[in-house]
Amino acid sequence: MVLASHHVIGDILETIEGGDLRKLQDICTKFCERYPLDDALRRIICGADSKISEYLISRDEKILEDIKSELGELMKIRKMETSGGERLWFKDRRP
To answer: Which end of the chain is less crowded, N or C, counting CB atoms within 10 A of the terminal residue's CB?
Structure first.
């Protein structure tokens, strides 16, 4: 199962900070297609019931802040997982 890296999540956060809603919608569509099995990311950015869709409809700043905090937490988790967390496929990097 391929999960979105912390770099991908960082790109989404940068797009949110940029404020271009058309670009945000495009990047969310792109990453939803690229990572169909990443449930944590899909809950935030994919589908009609996602937080991003809710924000795009209502333009509520509280929802936007919730999205930023959830993506920030997910980015921290993914960064830890890829840099030596417990869920790596190898236990020791030494030969």
So the answer is: C
